Amino acid sequence: MNLNQIIFLILRRMRVPLLMVIISYAIALIGFVLIPGADDQGLPYRLSFFDGFYILSYTATTIGFGEIPYPFTGHQRIWMTFSIYLTVIAWFYAIGAIIALFQEVSLKQAIKTARFQRDVCNLMEPFYLICGYGETGSELVRALDKNELRVVVLEISPERVNELEMTDYQFYIPHLCADAKLSEVLLYAGIKNPMCRGVAALTDDDHANLAISVAIKLIKPGLPVLARVENDVVAANMASFGTDHIINPYKIFGEHLAMRLNALGTYILHEWLTRAPGDAIAPPAAIPEGKWIACGFGRFGKSVVSSLQNGAMDVTIIEADPQGTQCEDCIVGSGVESHILQQAGVEQAVGIVAGTDNDINNLSIVMTALEVNPELFVIIRKNKRHNDPLFQHFNADITMQPSDMIAHTCLSYMVSPMLAEFLAMARHHSNAWANAVIAQLVSKLGEQVPDTWDITIEGEMAFAVCALMEQGMQPAIKHLTMSPFGQQRHEMAVVPLMLVRGEQKSLLPELSTPLQTGDKILCCGMDQAKSIQRYVMHDIKTLHYLVTGSEMPETWIGRWLKS
After folding, report:
1. Please, are residues 257 and 399 in contact by the beta-carbon 8 Å criterion?
2. Which of 111, 409, 482, 551 is least surrounded by Cβ atoms within 10 Å, i.e. has the fewest?
3. Measured between alpha carbons, how far is 287 from 310 in angstroms, rounded to an integer?
4. Residue 68 exposure: Cα atoms within 13 Å on the Cβ side
């Protein structure tokens, strides 16, 4: 809604009050002009329209001033008394209408929408649109903000919008309380803005996420869309409309659990590169082999059971609704009962999975099981973030929260599109290779989660590199990992993870590899190194010094003499 529409809405609501004020002023003014008075000589005198309006102005606004230019006659005072009540009542009605107007939800929403549109239009740097600021959306927004990526948020819940406004982010986040399923709302949010780099549909309603995905692909087909989904039918529908990344948290957790079972190093590498920069990753405990008990055979339970069984584990399933979950071989029960767990063989089990959709039941299942077998390895599902204190106090071996899974997956696609490709290729390498990569990263970057970014050797994005190549020099990858600041050139805390050259993709490329126009490089490192690298890529003198070890002559005579 633009400014003209807001003004029209205000004028339409104020039409009757304004007419009442105008009519009351007109009646009072005509009376002042028509009713004769007397001057100081007792001669007849009539007020001009200006004098009448002047007297009416300070009278109707209850300011009060005096009778000019001469004292009123009795008839004039009677008319003045009538005019006071007439205009003051009209004013009270108009003021009441104004107060009611600005308390009206539709006008407030219109003003917020207009401000939101203006803020989005004023964004002069790439941004992502996040539809849904729930547990998943808030975690993703926090991570993107830490990575210095701008964000626009749509959220239908006023409580969650208030939560966003009270959260301290380093960048201002344009936000609107509206239904993201509506195409006009998506247009307000800037999906046609050339700065919009993608949309994440992260509401807790699969059908809403489907509607958002379909609308984006119909309005702007080339815009990348990441959509959260838990229902396989809705996922298939999303795929048919070309949704770029369909994210099922339970499927992802199953894949991660399988990685943790079969390739712990690959799992740690994945976690380390997809979390928010600055976070600390605790070394994960190894999953024991043997008999397992899984309580709950819903979407989460099926994914976990499949991963455990693929890892040659013996799994006994406890399910309260076998028909609803299509569980053919299970013990009927919720798992909170001690005798049900004993029937499942909890004394001989090495691990238990509490995977129902109720946090309290999951905690109860685990507490009951640990009373019988304190050595159990515990995998527990956490559904709601507000239960964090309970789960932190419990300290399970693996705590799965869908919102975290989705946020980390989205982050891997958004922070750097190349990061997702790198992680996919890393899964095809051995666990020993992943451990070697982790050792290299930790030795150079430290143990906190690094920042990840990609660079392209092309045009203005790498002006200095292209300029030196045109002069016959050959900058290499290592020159983009060096700092010119200090007494001499030195390596920065940055590691090139992947080089993409045409159709060829190389993991951990050699630092001596010469750069070519069109190269894309995925890097990880500290934020300061990222800033220095950008500076080096755009400053010819600095890059010349890093490549040759000597200062670049500033004048054409110096360059001629050196040549």
Report:
1. no
2. 551
3. 14
4. 14
- What are the C-alpha distances in Å from 94 to residues 23, 86, 102, 118, 291? 12, 13, 13, 30, 77
Distance CA 507, CA 493 (A): 18
Burial profile 30-59: b = 16 or more Cβ within 10 angstroms, e = fewer: ebbeebebeeeeeeeeebeeeebeebbeeb
Q: What is the pLDDT of residues 408-433, one digit of tens each?
A: 888 878 877 788 889 889 888 888 89
Mapped onto helix, strand or coil, the DSSP state of residue 349 is: coil
Helices vs strands, H then E, count in the chain:
24, 20
Rounded Cα distance between 535 and 543, Å, is 9
One-letter-per-residue 3-state SS of 168-212: CCCCCCCEEECCCCCHHHHHHCCCCCCCEEEEEECCCCHHHHHHH
Q: Which residues pair with 525 in a beta bridge?
A: 451, 494
Measured CA to CA, the distance from residue 149 to residue 144 in angstroms comes to 5
Q: What is the DSSP string of 96-143?
A: HHHHHHHT-HHHHHHHHHHHHHHHHHT--S-EEEEE--SHHHHHHHHH
pLDDT digit string, tens, across residues 215-234: 999 999 999 999 999 888 89
Nearest to 180 by CA among 129, 121, 114, 115: 129
Asked whether residue 556 carries a pLDDT value surpassing 60, the answer given is: no
What is the DSSP pairing of strand 377-381 with strand 351-354?
parallel
Can you tell me whether residue 312 is helix, strand or coil? coil
Q: How far apart are CA 245 and CA 251, in angstroms?
A: 13
Cβ–Cβ under 8 Å, residues 318 and 340: yes
Q: E strands along 242-376, which residues? A: 245-247, 291-295, 314-319, 331-332, 351-354
Q: If 0-12 CB within 10 Å is exposed, 13-18 middle and 19+ buried, where does residue 252 land?
A: middle
Q: Give the tens place of pLDDT for each residue, 110-167.
A: 788 888 999 999 998 999 999 999 888 998 999 899 878 899 999 999 999 999 999 9
CA distance 365 to 394: 12
Q: Read off the pLDDT of residues 434-473 as tens digits, 9 standing for 90 and up.
A: 989 988 888 888 888 888 888 999 888 889 999 889 888 8
